[in-house]
Structure formats: structure tokens, C-alpha cells
Specification:
This protein is mostly helical. It has two domains: 91 residues, Rna Polymerase Sigma Factor, Chain: A (Orthogonal Bundle); 89 residues, Winged helix-like DNA-binding domain superfamily/Winged helix DNA-binding domain (Arc Repressor Mutant, subunit A, Orthogonal Bundle), CATH 1.10.10. The radius of gyration is 20 Å and the shape is globular. The N and C termini lie far apart (74 Å).
Length: 203
């Protein structure tokens, strides 16, 4: 009887996962597109990685359905990043690492280009018109500013502006309070703006 009840619940779980996946699919796709290295893209497409992530979600239903304050997207994001790390190990023979930890996306020393361009575009939105930076100068100024920023500052800005996470979701990802996340964001935004202007004036 218990086995029959378990089998009856399985289709309901599948329907729930499909609905949740559909709701957050575009955000997961943007995340993986930005984080997927070119070396892995030569072996599998983003759609393939999305499929692997969905299958991984099906195997982590207990984690996804676990009650608590952790937003569902944050749970999906963790599984997506873990799947990405798994695929890197599988296809690129990457060294062993903790897949549940965040991936460092510092433009320096990486073959990912999406966030470099995204940072430059973000710089446009907060730069003073007085800097008059041309595109190449803006890219160089952005790179220099990023090299001077603490990792925590880069991380909170990437989460808010590139992944478009809410303050509550950022807090959950970083495992800090929402108040702390808000303060860190405002501080990081000011620091990046100030650094960008300082570097821009020196070009």
C-alpha cells in the first residue's frame, strides 16, 4: 500500500517540477549561458546543460520540496551550478572541487567573456558623462576597477545586475541577512562607481 501511494505521488511531483522549471527556466538559462566556459561549449550546448540540470532537479526533489525560507530559485540555481561543475569535471577532466560553492567569475584569468561585456555595459549606466570614455577605454577602465574591487563587492553586483536576483535571493545565496545584503549592495555600487571614475580619469 505504501509503495502504491509513493507511485501515485510521483506524477504530482513531476507536474510540480515542470511548473517550477517553466517559471524559472529563462533565469537558469541566462545563468548557465554566462557561466559556461567556451571550452565546455565546444563539447556541449547550453540546451544540453539545461537538460542535465532539469534531470538533476528531478533527482533532488527532496531538497527542492524541503520547507524553509530558502527561495525556490536559489535552490534551482545551486543545482544548476552543481550540474555545471559536474559537466566540467566530466568533459574537461577538471580538478576535484566543492560543486555547491559559487564559481568565481572574475574576468581576469578566465575564458568567459559574457560578464566582461556585461560589466562594461553596467559601467555605462553609472558613469558620469564627464568621463567621455570610448568603448575600448571603458573596457580597460572596467577591468582595472574590477581588479581593485573585493570579491564580495563584485559578487553582490553580479547577482543583482547580471542574474537579476532580488535582495532576498541574494541574501539566501550569500547566506547573510537581507539587511546585510542591502548594505553590501549599496556599498559595492558606490565603490565601483568611485573606482570607475578614478580609473577613467587616469586613462
Amino acid at each position: 500500500m505504501q509503495q502504491e501511494k509513493k507511485n501515485e505521488a510521483a506524477p504530482q511531483e513531476s507536474v510540480w517540477l515542470a511548473e517550477v522549471w517553466q517559471e524559472h527556466r529563462e533565469r537558469i538559462a541566462r545563468l548557465l549561458t554566462a557561466r559556461m566556459p567556451e571550452s565546455l561549449l565546444r563539447r556541449m550546448g547550453v540546451d544540453d546543460l539545461m537538460q542535465e540540470t532539469y534531470l538533476a532537479c528531478g533527482r533532488r526533489m527532496e531538497f527542492l520540496r524541503e520547507p524553509g525560507e530558502l527561495p525556490i530559485y536559489v535552490k534551482l540555481r545551486r543545482i544548476a551550478l552543481q550540474t555545471l561543475a559536474d559537466m566540467e569535471r566530466k568533459h574537461l577532466a577538471a580538478g576535484k572541487r566543492d560543486a555547491m560553492k559559487e564559481v568565481d567569475l572574475t574576468p581576469e584569468g578566465s575564458d568567459r567573456t559574457d560578464y566582461t561585456d556585461a560589466w562594461a555595459q553596467f559601467a555605462d549606466t553609472i558613469s558620469s558623462p564627464r568621463t567621455h570614455l570610448e568603448r575600448m577605454e571603458r573596457l580597460e577602465a572596467t577591468r582595472r576597477a574590477l581588479r581593485q574591487m573585493p570579491k564580495n563587492d563584485r559578487e553582490i553586483l553580479e547577482l543583482r545586475h547580471f542574474e537579476e536576483l532580488s535582495n532576498a535571493e541574494c541574501a539566501a545565496v550569500l547566506e547573510i541577512t537581507q539587511k546585510t545584503a542591502s548594505i553590501r549592495y549599496v556599498r559595492a555600487l558606490k565603490r565601483f562607481r568611485d573606482l570607475l571614475l578614478q580609473v577613467g580619469e587616469g586613462l
